[in-house]
Amino acid sequence: MLLKVPATSANLGPGFDCIGMALNLYNYIEYEFLEKEGYLSLEISGEGADSLAKDKSNLVYRAFSRAFILNNQKVPGIKLKLINNIPLARGLGSSSAAIIGGLMVANCQLNKRLNDDQLLDLAMEFEDHPDNIAPALLGGIVLCTLNNGKYYYQKMNPPNPLCCSILIPDFQLSTKMAREVLPDVIPLKDAVFNVGKMGFFINAINTGNLELLKLAIDDKLHQPYRSRLIPGLPELFAKATKSKIILGIAISGAGPSVIIFHKKEDTDSLGQLQEVLLQHGTAAKLINLKPIVEGAQVL
Ligand code: HSE
Predict the structure, then answer these.
(1) Which one of 95, 124, 133, 179 would you pick to mutate in the ligand 1 pocket, going by the greatest count of ligand atoms within 8 A of its CB?
(2) Which of 113, 177, 291, 294 matches a 20 to 30 Å C-alpha distance to 94?
(3) Which CATH fold would you assign to the domain 2-157+294-298?
């Protein structure tokens, strides 16, 4: 059996910790249940093949086994082959993909007894923020809010001509480190700035008026503080703002990747953005991706 889980980009400019989007870049999990209870065989190819754990501490396996334990069931034997295309620690949701992947594999054996809400609740045992987890499972662009200790989700479909490219620097940045640079207190005017931008962002997505994204994609809650972790970021944003094809640019999740929203797939001129980072000593890969409607799926 085979399933795929998409990469995700969180924050999307103004929506720090509250919004994320699924992208057409996937990790695949081949799996086969085995008779021998608790047995694990784990192979990894692609991203993280040399660095990720191949024993029971692997995040895919931890999520997989947690689903059985929570359902008072014995953990079945499993042969897993992870084919990873989502780069690690780059702000593209590789951990969320692992968690959702592990839970989905378990849910197949549990005859899909866990619904999306339960899967999301369970996934949140492993991550502190829902903005990658939710779109990895549900697809589309997902809004998340915490109410009386429980997360709630609203999925929106990405408007059709919306394309994006991701600039992926050749260094890793852990979410933990990227959160350590954030202040505990935000000036009121910065909070108001983000509230307004977020309103415009949601309106742009729901109406399909992509011109509004030019106004909406900005942030004062996390990007100014994280800027120093990504050499050349202010210059990159300045360059992007002048481009005719770019609708918006933002740090993807906690970084260091950057998401660039544009209408056309014609992205020749985006190579200039790579140059800007290179001038600041950072080599980066540029890939074109599309927002997708479907989340993780058994194939
Ligand atoms: N929203 C998180 C952050 C990353 O920017 O730190 C994804 O959970």
Answers:
(1) 179
(2) 113
(3) Ribosomal Protein S5; domain 2 (3.30.230)
CATH fit for domain 162-289, picks 3.30.70.890, 3.40.50.2300, 2.60.40.770, 3.40.50.720: 3.30.70.890
Residues whose CB falls within 8 Å of the CB of residue 269, separated by 6 or more in sequence, listed in order? 243, 245
Rounded to two decimals, the pTM is 0.95
Nearest residue to 80 (alpha-carbon basis) of 44, 106, 27, 26: 44
209-265 per-position pLDDT tens digit: 999 999 999 999 999 999 999 999 999 999 999 888 899 999 999 999 999 999 876
Which residue has a Cα nearest atom 3 of ligand 1?
A: 254
Testing ligand 1's pocket by substitution, the residue of 151, 182, 198, 222 carrying the most ligand atoms inside 8 A of its CB is: 222
Q: Domain map of the chain by residue range?
A: 2-157+294-298, 162-289
* CB distance 136 to ligand 1 below 6 Å: no
